[in-house]
Amino acid sequence: MNSTIKKSLSVVMCTAMLASVAGCSSSGTPSTSTAPSQSSAASPASGSQAESAAGSSEAAPASDGTIAMPISAEPITLSYFIKMNSAMSATMPTYEDVECFKKLEEMTNIHIEWIHPSSNDQFNLMITSNDLPDLINWQLTTAKGGSEALINDGIIIPLTDKMAEFAPNYTRIMNANPELKKTTLLDDGTEYQFINFNYDPTDNSIKVFKILGPYIRKDWLDKVGLGIPKTTDEMYTVLKAFKDNDVNGNGDPNDEIPFVCGKSLEPVRVLSGAFGTRDSFHMKNGEVVYGPTQPEFKEYLTMINKWYSEGLINSDFPVNDNPGAKILSNEAGSTYASMGSGLIMQSTALAEEYPGAELVSMPWLTGPNGDHSVIYDSNANPRATAITTANKHVEESLRWIDYAYSAEGSMLTTFGIEGVSYEMKDGYPTLTDLVMNNTMGYNQEEAIARYCLGPINYPNARDYRFYEQVNLDTEMKRQIQVDWTQATEDICMPPITMNTQESAQYSSVMADIKTYVDEMQVKFMIGDESLDNFDTFVKNIEGMGIDQAIEIQKAALARYGQR
Amino acid sequence: MAVIKKSAGDHIFDFINAVFMCFMIVITLYPFIYVVMASLSVPKLFLAHTGLLLRPVGFSLESYEAVLRNPNIKIGYVNTVFIVVVGTLCNVIATAIGAYVLSRKGPFWKGPLMFIIVITMFVGGGLVPNYILIQNLGLYNSLWSLILPGLISTHNMIVMRTAFQGIPESLEESARIDGANDWTILFKVIIPLAIPTMAVISLFYAVSHWNSWFSAMIYLKDKTKYPLQLVLREIIVQSQVSDMTTMDSYMDRYAVSQTVKYATIMVATIPILCVYPFLQKYFVKGVMIGAIKG
Amino acid sequence: MEFTEKQKGRKHMAAKSLSPAGTRKKGVGAMLKRDFMKYKGIYALAVPVLAYFIIFKYIPMYGITIAFKNYVPTKGIFGSDWVGFEHFMRFFKSVYFKRTVLNTLIISVYDVIFGFPAPIIFALLLNEVKNNIFKRTIQTITYLPHFISTVVIAGMIIDFTSQNGLINNIIALFGGERTDMLMRPEMFRGIYIISGIWQGVGWGSIIYLSALSSIDQEQYEAAYIDGANRWQQAINVTLPGIMPTITILFILKIGGLMSVGSEKILLLYSPVTYETADIISTFIYRKGLLDMDYSFSTAVGLFNSIINIILLSTANALSRKVNETSLW
Prior knowledge:
heterotrimer, B: 294 residues, mainly alpha, 15 helices, 68% helix, C: 328 residues, MetI-like fold, two-stranded antiparallel ribbon, 2 strands, disordered N terminus
């Protein structure tokens, strides 16, 4: 204990001196490029700590953002229940062998016993048999009864009164981003979990990285002399042009599939955002409504039906299990899918097989009424770490977790070991050849995973510069983010939570309604059911008790608003 | 043995039957061919392929490399072989005892007992109580947790019982007269006369052990104890890329993940496929019945 | 208690009925004792078997109570609240109760009518193949699809039934119209059953082949001498020879009528075919995506099991009357 105090005191002394020399502001929130501890600033670590230390050096060492090392005088062991990422499990049995965790253990004197489950059942069994580890990382809000049940029934502990003192870095970032913070709390404001996010140290912002969106064949557009469509009307023109002309150049003007969709129905589903609606609950003018009963939904179905009947969507879309193949075979013109396994992978493969073929991202479409929204909220059900009631070292655990949100910790967990897996080149953390072009027989992802967490969903403040160098290294990839982040999340419901009774009633009412809506939706689209019967459709939904479900959603939303 | 002459009708029937069998061979062989060819295909090319697959699209052993370089495969094989051999032995003996008890005409509670046992095929506690039981029995993280709970499959026991019932009572009686007790009768009289059934039931248990992974996932903590199927399942799940990781190797990785599935099936299935041909000789007609007369 | 025992059992009964009414209770005890003395060996062997079933099957049965509670993992089974028949009522009141139950039963019945006889017929035909090498080859190949995972088989089915797939190519060859077969509700069951036969007929015939090899060769010779041709031999020797096996497996199949698994259907169905393809387990699966309600699925499972037991008992009783082969 003595040595720790001495060490931290000396740090405070040094940094206080440096701070006075540097003359930087000592405000809590970072405003300069050398932002305080919670950023992953490129500048020398001591410099950044200077700001924060100077800002609150009167407080106990922990609350200024610096985590005193080692965290525990005696070696302690914490058990950690967390799903293992595939890139790591390919080369090592547990997270123990990841270099950044090894370093962390050395520094903190805390040994982690990793428990890696492979299924949801294991989570529920662990809880029900009361065989609790010290830390759990899971999509806690998906537990039965929500996070409330986990807390009220004695599985995890609320952390509200301990956060500021023992997890200062996380607290600071959360306070700087109140909307995000709200999504991580219980309705009564209780804090209990640590989530992962992309952090840009240069301006203290949380960066959202989009990985799903629409894309289209640029070379086909060029062939028919049209630009990238931005509205649904423009899209229709484009699709029609694809259909009527032999854009894939094989001599057959009839084999093109302008818009391809598979049995997940996602590509078609997301188009409803252009009408400000979706096939489930959403926000409209500040109120919760059920999409399928809204007139906008009929407009959306009408459009899809029109596209389908004119052959602009593949006729077998409700049963097609491999739409990607159509893109790769030079038959499909546009679709919606993921960035990596969809757009990027397909564009590279296409270019190899069909020189001149160019697949690019396109922005989300804007509908006839000016709506321009995505339908999925990006904050729902995050994977997060919580501390269980079996944990006997709560304060040490908090410090250990919080370290990953500090400047040093963020660098360590995102990039790994300086000099080995990354180097500072002109103040920018650059991944080294060792991991980027490894000769150990691993692929790039696996190599990186041996040293650090990189892009893996782990509770840390992931330094956004990681993404910059691996995922935004080409113009095309940067354009993807531009295109796909423009749309609003206006209509998306925030991550509300329901209690046990509510969710029981909700799921029985909705099981029926959802079946009905799913079935009828597709029937309207393919023309098996006439859109004239839309009103009957709405009446039937009302008859199945949608009002009860709406009431439940409203109540949950009201509680959310008060967090 | 009398010579059986064939009539013209017989020949026509044989011919049609042979044609039919050839047809069956072709259509049932196709899925296997598909898997083999897919596993040997170049992953990127395979992605674009639709339709019949009668030869690899390109040729590549990448998928096998992706599967076999996993260090856990060897462990998986070892564990599985243990479970299959030891497990099946235990299963067969336990099932035979149960089938014997249920097939004898003696005890008056035979009917009700049968009913009680059959009910367990329909009603069960579910995952949670079984998990708690395994923990309480101290079997958690032990390979025996994969053998004991499923020791007797009621379905298999019923099949065996049917076979045991088909053995003439006179044989049991004459054995008793010779002073044999039930244990001896079971192992020296009944079982030898029901060899085909014993072979089939052994096959069923062996295959069931070979293919199982769920219990292992729930009851085993050490990855060093994982049976093959669980290791392979994790490989498939692993190879399904999460979209958070997008790097140069991404495309290759995604493509390989699609064919990895097929290489996995090959690695997982070839060994067990060899068991049945080995057992076929026990299905030869009349071998055992002749022994009775003799 | 009903006794269908033979004379030995009846002797016990006779002895019991001769004793005075007052000694009735002792009678059962005495009967047990006598039985035990007579069948010591069987009792000894029965004990471990019974122990197994009690420990591994009956002790965990308290888990059934989940069906009558609102089971929440955080509270554990014993800590969750009782709700009686609420889950059952929810299921019965669902708009889709009737459809899903009907679809489940129809698919099962089709499976009994077409899927059950297929391996039997195949085994009988295989039995007629004289060339041993050919026979073994057929056996070894036809059982392969059983080992290919359902996911892969489903992928093939989707491919074959698509507009430009194999089956449509054949149909077009004969001048028929091309359709996306899996989009037609009326075709779903056929595709499901036929593909099930394709995948399972080889493996399913194994048990019948083993039963066939137990038939006394002399009976064939006797029949031949009596002038029976191959067909008559099949009807009079072969079929009766494997009838016990067929009967027992048939009874067990009836006991599975309500339990059609969801895996394959989930891979093949889509909202377009819900009207014939949506069965109980797929409906529960989708509900589970909304809220992992163990209690609800346990309740529905219990309901299914009870129906199955009733069906099984009926089949068993009928079978006992008709051909004296039964489970109990």
